[in-house]
Fold ubiquitinyl hydrolase 1.
Amino acid sequence: PAEEKAQLLQNSEYQERMVESTFLYLTLDLPTAPLYKDEKEQLIIPQVPLFSILAKFNGSTEKEYKTYKENFLKRFQLTRLPPYLIFCIKRFTKNNFFVEKNPTIVNFPITNVDLREYLSEEVQAAHAHTTYDLIANIVHDGKPSEGSYRIHVLHHGTGKWYELQDLQVTDILPQMITLSEAYIQV
C-alpha cells in the first residue's frame, strides 16, 4: 500500500538511491508462460507487444529483485539513446532443477520503433531522433539445452530480408520475422 511504502521510505534502510549506468543492451523480461493447455488440448502460445515489455524503462514501473541476502525494488529510465540499440529478450530462466524456455511471441514492429516516451522530458529535447528500425533478429529454436539458432538480417542495399542458419541463406518475408521466438534484436 502507498501509505506503508511512504512510512518505510522514512527509514534509512529503505531510502531511494539513484545509480546511473551505461548499457550495452536492454534486457526485456517476458511475462510468465501459461501452465495450462487451451480447450483444444493445444499449448497456448502467448503473445505480448514489444511496448508492454519496454514499459520496464518508463521510469515509474517498479520491479522486485530478490537475492539470497536481500530484496529490493528497481526502476529503470533511459537517459540517452545510442546509435544502435540491442534488445535481449529474456527467454531462459534457471531454477534449482533445470533451464526453462519461455515461448512467448513478442509482437514487434520492424520499422519505426519510437522510444521517445521512455525518455524524461529534458532528455527528449536533446534527442531529435528516437526511432529505430530492425536490422537483425536472432532466434532460438528448440529446447534450451539442444536448440539451434538462426538469424534474420536486412540487406540494407536492397531492403530484402534474409534468413541465415549455418551455411544456408534464404529469402524471408518481413511478416514472417515477427512470428519467430526472437532472442536478440538489433
The longest strand covers residues 58-66. Residues 56 and 112 are 19 Å apart (CA to CA). The chain has one domain: 1-7+23-33+43-185. The first helix runs from residue 2 to 8.
